[in-house]
Amino acid sequence: MNSLSTSAVSPPINKPSRAVGTNLPTLVFDSSEDLARHVAQLVAGIIRERAAHGQQAVLGLPTGSTPVGVYRELARMHREEGLNFSNVVAFVLNEFYGLARDQLQSHHRWMKEHLLDLVNIPASQVHVPDGSVPLARVEEHCREFEAAIEQAGGIDVLLLGIGTNGHIGSNEPFPGTTGRTRLCTLDPVTRRALASDFYGEWNVPTQAITMGLGTIFDARKVLLLALGERKAGIIREVAEGPVSPRVPASYLQEHADATVLVDAAAGSQLTSSQTPWAAGKVEWSDALIKRALLWL
Ligand code: GLP
Question: CA 186 to CA 53: how far, in whole Å?
Answer without folding.
Answer: 41
